[in-house]
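Case study B.
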Amino acid sequence: MSKVIKGGTIVTADRQFAGDILIEDGKIAAIGDNLTGDEVIDAEGAYVIPGGIDPHTHLEMPFMGTTADETFESGTWAAATGGTTMLVDFCLPGPDGSIKNAINDWHRKSAPQICSDIGYHMAITGWNESIFNEMKDAVDMGVNSFKHFMAYKGALMVEDDEMYASFSRCKELGALPMVHAENGDIIQELQQKYLAEGITGPEGHAFSRPPELEGEAANRAIMIADAVGTPLYIVHVSCEQAHEAIRRARQKGHRVYGEPLIQFLTLDESEYFNKSWEHAARRVMSPPFRSKAHQDGLWAGLSAGSLQVVATDHCAFGTEKKKMGLNDFTQIPNGTGGLEDRLAVLWTTGVETGRITPEEFVAVTSTNIAKILNIYPQKGALVPGADADIVVWDPKISKTISANSQKSIIDYNVFEGFEVTAQARHTLSRGDVIWSWGKNSAPQPGRGRFVPRPAFSSAGTALSRWKALNTPRKVERDPMNIPSGI
Amino acid sequence: MSKVIKGGTIVTADRQFAGDILIEDGKIAAIGDNLTGDEVIDAEGAYVIPGGIDPHTHLEMPFMGTTADETFESGTWAAATGGTTMLVDFCLPGPDGSIKNAINDWHRKSAPQICSDIGYHMAITGWNESIFNEMKDAVDMGVNSFKHFMAYKGALMVEDDEMYASFSRCKELGALPMVHAENGDIIQELQQKYLAEGITGPEGHAFSRPPELEGEAANRAIMIADAVGTPLYIVHVSCEQAHEAIRRARQKGHRVYGEPLIQFLTLDESEYFNKSWEHAARRVMSPPFRSKAHQDGLWAGLSAGSLQVVATDHCAFGTEKKKMGLNDFTQIPNGTGGLEDRLAVLWTTGVETGRITPEEFVAVTSTNIAKILNIYPQKGALVPGADADIVVWDPKISKTISANSQKSIIDYNVFEGFEVTAQARHTLSRGDVIWSWGKNSAPQPGRGRFVPRPAFSSAGTALSRWKALNTPRKVERDPMNIPSGI
Amino acid sequence: MSKVIKGGTIVTADRQFAGDILIEDGKIAAIGDNLTGDEVIDAEGAYVIPGGIDPHTHLEMPFMGTTADETFESGTWAAATGGTTMLVDFCLPGPDGSIKNAINDWHRKSAPQICSDIGYHMAITGWNESIFNEMKDAVDMGVNSFKHFMAYKGALMVEDDEMYASFSRCKELGALPMVHAENGDIIQELQQKYLAEGITGPEGHAFSRPPELEGEAANRAIMIADAVGTPLYIVHVSCEQAHEAIRRARQKGHRVYGEPLIQFLTLDESEYFNKSWEHAARRVMSPPFRSKAHQDGLWAGLSAGSLQVVATDHCAFGTEKKKMGLNDFTQIPNGTGGLEDRLAVLWTTGVETGRITPEEFVAVTSTNIAKILNIYPQKGALVPGADADIVVWDPKISKTISANSQKSIIDYNVFEGFEVTAQARHTLSRGDVIWSWGKNSAPQPGRGRFVPRPAFSSAGTALSRWKALNTPRKVERDPMNIPSGI
Amino acid sequence: MSKVIKGGTIVTADRQFAGDILIEDGKIAAIGDNLTGDEVIDAEGAYVIPGGIDPHTHLEMPFMGTTADETFESGTWAAATGGTTMLVDFCLPGPDGSIKNAINDWHRKSAPQICSDIGYHMAITGWNESIFNEMKDAVDMGVNSFKHFMAYKGALMVEDDEMYASFSRCKELGALPMVHAENGDIIQELQQKYLAEGITGPEGHAFSRPPELEGEAANRAIMIADAVGTPLYIVHVSCEQAHEAIRRARQKGHRVYGEPLIQFLTLDESEYFNKSWEHAARRVMSPPFRSKAHQDGLWAGLSAGSLQVVATDHCAFGTEKKKMGLNDFTQIPNGTGGLEDRLAVLWTTGVETGRITPEEFVAVTSTNIAKILNIYPQKGALVPGADADIVVWDPKISKTISANSQKSIIDYNVFEGFEVTAQARHTLSRGDVIWSWGKNSAPQPGRGRFVPRPAFSSAGTALSRWKALNTPRKVERDPMNIPSGI
Ligand SMILES: [Zn+2]
Ligand SMILES: [Zn+2]
Ligand SMILES: [Zn+2]
Ligand SMILES: [Zn+2]
Ligand SMILES: [Zn+2]
Ligand SMILES: [Zn+2]
Ligand SMILES: [Zn+2]
Ligand SMILES: [Zn+2]
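Model:
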């Protein structure tokens, strides 16, 4: 049964135009005028955009002695209602340290639950021969990106030589290294310092993770990636310091990508100084929100091209779990929400203000990450042959964000009270309408699929070529010019 | 009669994929596998790319007391043989100062000659009410970009207040201001200084136009565009100084575009120090070639996104005309060639080395400028409905560039002796194969068309919205708080 | 009769140490321990510093159809009570355009009035042969610095070629060019725009002079100075944009100096949005106060060495004169006060907070400008042989700044209400105690002297040498390699 | 017995003037005209400058399995003949790890040998309670600076948390942390990579230590120092990357100092590509010489104030010792010479060309480091009371540098063949003429003294004050707003 999305203004990363979209077998069959199909989806007065991709979520993630509340079902469902049709979740090795087992474990948990499609990044939290070997398995299993934590000392953190080794392996495999960039050593020192000074509340979280520590780590990871000769993706860029390091590298021809979060574009550190402990603790995530002074630069990065992706780092711990850190901010589980609201908040604060164009909105919410993760145009595009992950985006539906009315299962929302001016009228996942505004749509757990991603992106291939051409060469010396031994 | 380009690897600004392209009525009718048509164009082993757009040419331009040699016929033809299917030429007002008359004059000259499509930028070389009025006529006639010369004092140069006025008019009309950025006042001072010191040869041209003068003017034009609230396009960016100004502006959210020339990416100022006067004089153009130290930054700008377009500033004066400046470098007609070789040289030095990806090659030779000039996807794209300006780009045809074998009618080539590793196997203009490698193709003057361009690009519209939201507001004061007059 | 300043901590630009200072014949005769003299000046518990030099004042200056209120008497007196023992005032040519006459006129006005020493900068407000010639007269008369206004179009403003010519003349004469850096063309456009929009109040002054216009002009002046090969001094640096241009130049080896004002370090643009017209109008000066975001960078510039001097641009128009612009902000006389409070405000906000060291305080209030203006160590130093312009600076005298209690004759103070924590206990001018705290000191008009300044500073000489070594050289060509004429 | 240096031009960091210097009891007794003394030292036609201070030497240092050849005697003697009257040598803990013992050991070795004065920096090569405690002993013993190696993994290298701990201890003690900034982890990876590729020659040394690794480490150390709130001194700055990190920090108000070496200002990496293994191996030091592109920036840093000190890192291993690395560049002892030639090379390439002024020459060779190390004006100054470490610097004595004629005991000289245009006519150490040109002066081992340095410099004190004022504050929350436990 075919469907036609009719009457909308199609917006892609490169243009806007009036047109219909014909969908067959879960894929886009045609784009054009006056298309017909068995079923008509009304897009009159709305934009038609590629479904959002949120490349940074932690669903049901075991972390800091507890587990993130958002499930694969609730997460993919909440995302879909907000216009996001694919999540890329972070997969962590279990106690056995096996990558393969971890991926299979993630499949086991996600498969029966997910309402729309998903992919994984694999975390590299140490280094040994088995990890080296299993990285190939991960790539073979469709996971082409590996995350490295430069923070969480004593837990997930890796050292510089481990990053060098892992990045080198990524390069061989055509995979993309990613980093959580914060200096874990110094965070630990500052945590101890502020706790010793009696600062135990959530504000201590922000104080112990100043932006300089993020900038330093970003800069260091970039240097290592450059020494290896691989592109690098820096998750959750929150501050000018990290952005500056990224820009500096890009201006030398290095292929570095930066991902600000929607939170960092719109919220600031004053949240941690709120007189309500709960208000503050619910915002605890790493890196923390920054001062307002950082926001203009992040926005400019999106239009200038020095930052490419807006994500959420959705890792939702409910208030009860936050209370684990009641007397010690270092024990507050790190993470907050956003996957349901990302598109609406970005549209309202970005497109409606003219900071970014509608095309750039599509680029940073969907297309760019699809290219970076090498699944474009299967995802992130509106072209014949692409998966019909499509959103009819209605710029006339406004709402006030509230935990009371959200689909996410956590008990608060960091955007509580925000007025947004646009919403998904319909969300399609591979051609199925899984959400329609005001129609009592229900989640369909298990219909989502894992999307394997091939290795060797075009950018990585080009960089490898350049590095190979410019590798240092041995100086050939006449034995006459070499002294005999000592 | 339909045509199919079969068996190639299609490369666009956003991806590479195997596919055929069906052409009907001069437009792309379909892209897919196993397409059939009346005629087959073989693309086996080759890339299929959007025809190049060179947005910076001066054909038959009257300048410095003479006229550029390259005609509309020879220029469009030479370009087509090199894979470029559209030129945007600079239109200068004649003695009557009328914009409308100038455009009609350009039509009169170009229409019978052009072998492929063309557009114009209009030069604003002064300011008065009639220019203000006729700018609207230009936009109505399909010219949506206006060029301002900050150099050529006493001739084309405009002052800051004139730029402010013209940029403001551009903003109203939804047109794009462009600048030739060099400080004309200081150039004139330095010319006089070096002539007085007895430096009369072509090296004096380079000495009297140091990169700092270009950086200064770029910076100034950017400030004016920002004060007005309009995007800005900076032609022929040759140096780090101008690039730095562009980057700085973009990082504040300002929409500024920069256009390095293929010459600046690959040739350097040592050409002006050549012991042969003719060799040196043939390279005289403004801005001049720079020291090698500038090149890495320009290349990085292309991959980082801080520079968007590679052009040529093709303005070819033959050796005889260059001799006008035999005893005085300031009298050497400024300009050189490149439109025939741009793609091959960029491919060889950029894609083959891994400095840029094939996708970026397409972006900077075609797609980006089509977007900037608001004719995308009619031009610069491979999508159904687009003009079938397509090149079958063969990465296995190598040749040595030489004036002896070129199509351009000038008697030298600044790339003389360059080995290039790729060439256009076929060039199609609106579906017509106008050039095939080794097939004795002949120019078809008069088949080209003028391409009108609409106003109000997406980027300009967004910027206007942002500026409107952030415009300063009057402080309302109680009359009690305002003293009575004096 | 000799004097000894006893028991203080001597602070110079390079160190702090306990010591006495012996003064004879108006000069420092010795510095050491246990010195004796005919008279003892108590410095117990205080710092002993070189008298402040304010290199940027406009006393009794005719401007904008009126004349600045502060007289040479009241100005030098108020300065002295605040610890400043030398002013460098801006001398403007009169209607006859003569530099020599202007200097003599300034002498005529200042000589009978000044309570402490003075020097002049000469303004270059146009260009012709007589100005060229008279610049030498100025240098011979002890004026080694020339100011150029890039703003005040139609009045004081000069064009780029005029600056090039004047800077070149400065270089020849070993004099220092200075600029007021704001783009006068664009200011005029913005003034007209905001007036047309009905913004007639003082906030329009700030709106029509955004920091980008200052940054642009600074950048342009720097380029011109570099093309000429001369150092450059940029007065009243208010913003990051200008500071960035200065830093960028210095990092290329160019000798550029920047002078933030004490106002810009401590006050911000919100003053212009005050609901009281008078409050706002009294703060109107050019450049205007900027947003707080600019302040951190200026402060850092003082400790980093990228900015050298803290001045005041004291040009005090009383409230009645400000009312000339009651209905049109462009008619509000530009200028405000500060020379009395500069040291105390800088000490309190800079030294007391640790932003700058006491040594840096001395450097930026006195020593650096003495070096730049080539009168060091006659002024700005505490060494034997130097003029005994000395301040006993008491870090325990606090006061609240108020127009009610100030010595300046204007009827307001932009620092009204500031609590300062230090004051001059004694101020000596060439050995005379001209001010003692709480002792009813009275002004002594006529005792001050004009301080002639020699040309050819060390920095300028070095730069000239470097430029001479690196000047472009003619390419010698064999006649065989030059074609015969056309 | 008094001495007078007569007839010279005195040059200090702040001025030049004609004057005589009277010396009594090893100290400067007076500076003035027509001074008389028992003995006259002729300075006619020469400059009189403070003796050079080389703050970076490794005399007789045990390293990489051998010991640096230059002895305390030959080193201080060679330095003195070149105008350098004080060295600050790096003291390394011995096998027992004791700081106190190491200092005493250094005293034992140096005391009988040194011909002029000396000080030490203490190396911190690990972290434990005894190091924490003994750092105080070091300060009490007159060592107020502590060096941290971020390279030499497995040997001297310290980790980030160790740096944080040690920097914090430095801050408490008022001492200055210093770093050798290169990323030791990545160096080791690159060493293994290039060795595995068969690159065993000295060029591998350069390849395995690219400038990005130095920039990264500098940036990281700066971040740590900023988190602690202490000034930082970065030794042997060789490249733009490290300089950029320093500038960026300084422009935020952070007090970071950078020390380029005279080698880095004048020599480049092509030395490592020399066809003679010995030539190349003799230049092996860390960081290595860089490409010429780095030099302009370092020079500009000296005049702009972003770099403060020119040193040598004199650590001379003779050719026989270099051969330890004949088959493996990682075994070539790292280090080269320079202390004898630093002033002459800097004068010739810096002052004679106009890149720096004579005053800046004095500042970067002597005065600045004396201030940074808190021994100013005992050293680094020409003022009454200062140690009479004075050089009569003759700008008319030229010579060709050669190992054949040098005083240093190593068997080569990296400046071999350089023509220098100035030399020390006389060198005085605490009033003793220890070297006169052409007079067969002989070394006087044992006359030199250790110079203890006090803690708490003015800059450090100011920074501590600023950090204390701006330290984060606890958010006080009403118990009502804190949930009860979980
Ligand atoms: Zn993270
Ligand atoms: Zn995360
Ligand atoms: Zn041009
Ligand atoms: Zn042109
Ligand atoms: Zn001014
Ligand atoms: Zn002024
Ligand atoms: Zn070292
Ligand atoms: Zn060393």
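Chain A has one domain: 48-464. The remaining cases will be described in the next quarterly update.
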